[in-house]
Design goal:
By secondary structure, the protein is an alpha/beta fold. It is built from 18 helices and 20 strands. The strands form 3 sheets. Strands 7, 8, 9, 10, 11, 12, 13, 14, 16, 18, 19 and 20 form a 12-stranded mixed beta sheet that branches. A 6-stranded parallel beta sheet has the order 1-4-3-2-5-6, sandwiched between helices. A hairpin with a 5-residue loop joins strand 19 and strand 20.
Length: 513
């Protein structure tokens, strides 16, 4: 007998429909059990888990994570949400299935209100890399239910997919297999968490990124131009603001020095977008707050053109003195100083000299953009503990258009007193040079790209945190590429790389044995 698709579809409901169904069953004296997960590869361990969960009640409902919330790395989910829902609904022990409306099961539990929330035995200690299981346990308790941990054989969908489904390119798979034998996800996550209490200062240009979504209408019959129909806009905190937000997810306290204009509306927007554990020191100038307005076709997020609102002349001597005075009084207190230098006039030579002379640990990124090509090169910094550039920036700085990337990285190291150099190469991965023949290439982990803007900032931010405690070069490259893999799936700087998704990705990448 074939699969009855009609019967399967009858089992698949919305979360709101499921909430009413559960309520009706509970009023009839039935006990309802909820299971939740991704179920990307339905395997015997899942079936045993679901059958064991069903035994704890009368009705078993299963909710699964939507595709857009599956943050388990490149190529995931392998099976789309509809196929995953149908696979679950085809099981005899499952009474109803719904696609979850939220990233976690917390809101689902509060909406459906099951009697029992069932999880596998591996979660019995109420610990996981993301911290979600603790929140889910609190949620089921808050609605008068209880959590139950099933016993039985366990398999890892992630491990099976990694091993048998060619999720990664060959070079990436070979690297990850070898790397996972040297480092465990638990060790790496613990090392990252140990950075929570380091004192960090971020200094650099504040930028407000604007995405104005427009629909092309076709060539104007009267003018030699392409008209577009305006749809909507979004605004993001970019530049040094984005760097600070990335850092603030992993450190308890972050200080920020940046320049903005006198527009109160821009200041309110920036304060709203900065995380609560960031302490900003704003330098107000007569120049407007930098805005980069990109006009975007929403169909494929194609950027049509960009308008920049900026005055990139150097700040006044008076403002320069304010920054220097503030730095001189505090810079020795920081374990790490991160410079996001976009070359828009905020960081002057005197400020550079002070940072290089007095920062205990200095991480620098000098960005090349359309406003400063050839004028904002890394050699303006005589020293740094860590330099992070993309390939075009490194080639401009070394005047080497075609040379081997390892040789380019060595030339960068000779431009100043630089202890560590990383060059990001987009789809080619990243190249790490810590001197003394300590050179690594880390292949790219990402497969799906939503937006490249902001990915370099994420890479630089996360890897900079590794420098004060001397993380090994290969680990820094792995962490940077992991951050980049998450960042390219984020629209611009709409949100930052967060520990929960980051730790889940690291765990996924390293599940091989």
């Amino acid at each position: 007998m074939g699969i009855d698709i009609e019967e399967i579809n009858k089992k698949i409901k919305t979360v709101n429909e499921l909430a009413q169904i559960v309520q009706d069953y509970k009023l009839g004296g039935e006990k309802v059990v909820l299971c939740h997960g991704v179920f990307d590869l339905l395997h015997p361990g899942h079936i045993r888990y679901l059958e064991a969960a069903k035994k704890e009640g009368n009705i078993l409902v299963v909710t699964l994570t939507k595709d857009k919330y599956v943050d388990r790395g490149p190529g995931r989910p392998v099976f789309n949400e509809r196929l995953r829902a149908e696979s679950l609904a085809a099981l005899r022990c499952v009474d109803f299935v719904a696609l979850n409306e939220w990233p976690t099961a917390v809101e689902t539990i509060q909406t459906i209100k099951p009697d029992i929330y069932a999880k596998g035995a591996e979660f019995a200690n109420l610990k996981d890399d993301t911290g979600r299981i603790q929140k889910e346990a609190e949620a089921i308790k808050s609605i008068g239910g209880k959590i139950h941990f099933t016993e039985g054989i366990t398999f890892s969908s992630t491990k099976l997919l990694n091993q048998h489904f060619n999720v990664y390119q060959k070079e990436t798979e070979e690297f990850l297999r070898k790397f996972s034998k040297k480092y465990s996800s638990e060790l790496i996550i613990n090392k990252i968490n140990e950075q929570k209490n380091i004192k960090v200062l971020v200094i650099g240009d504040a930028i407000i990124d604007e995405y104005h979504y427009c629909e092309p209408m076709g060539k104007s019959p009267k003018e030699n131009l392409i008209p577009v129909k305006y749809l909507k806009k979004e605004r993001f905190a970019g530049g040094a603001l984005a760097t600070a937000n990335h850092i603030a997810g992993f450190c308890n306290n972050v200080d920020l020095i940046t320049g903005i204009g006198n527009e109160e509306i821009d200041k309110k927007f920036i304060l709203k977008k900065l995380k609560k554990n960031i302490k900003p020191f704003f330098i107000h100038s007569q120049k407007p707050t930098i805005k980069k307005r990109r006009f975007v076709d929403p169909s494929f997020l194609t950027k049509l053109f960009e308008v920049c609102f900026l005055d990139d002349s150097p700040i006044s001597e008076e403002l320069e003195k304010q920054i220097i005075k503030h730095l001189e009084g505090k810079i020795s207190n920081y374990d790490l100083v991160i410079v996001s230098d976009y070359g828009h006039g905020f960081i002057t030579k005197k400020i550079v000299d002070l940072l290089c002379e007095k920062a205990k640990c200095l991480a620098v990124n000098t960005q090349t953009n359309s406003a400063n090509i050839g004028f904002n090169l890394i050699d303006k910094y005589p020293r740094a503990d860590y330099v992070c550039l993309d390939e075009p920036e490194s080639r401009l700085a070394t005047r080497d258009k075609y040379g081997n990337i390892k040789e380019v990285s060595e030339k960068i190291m000779n431009l100043g007193e630089y202890k560590r150099v990383v060059i990001t190469g987009g789809h080619r991965g990243s190249f790490i040079n810590f001197g003394n023949n300590d050179f690594f290439k880390i292949p790219v982990f990402s497969k799906e790209i939503v937006d490249r803007i902001g990915a370099g900032d994420a890479y630089f931010s996360i890897t900079s945190l590794c420098i004060p405690n001397n993380f090994p070069s290969d680990l820094i490259g792995f962490l940077g590429n992991s951050a980049g893999a998450l960042a390219v799936k984020i629209l611009g700087n709409k949100k930052s790389v967060e520990p929960e998704a980051y730790f889940k990705l690291i765990t996924t990448l390293l599940k091989w044995e």
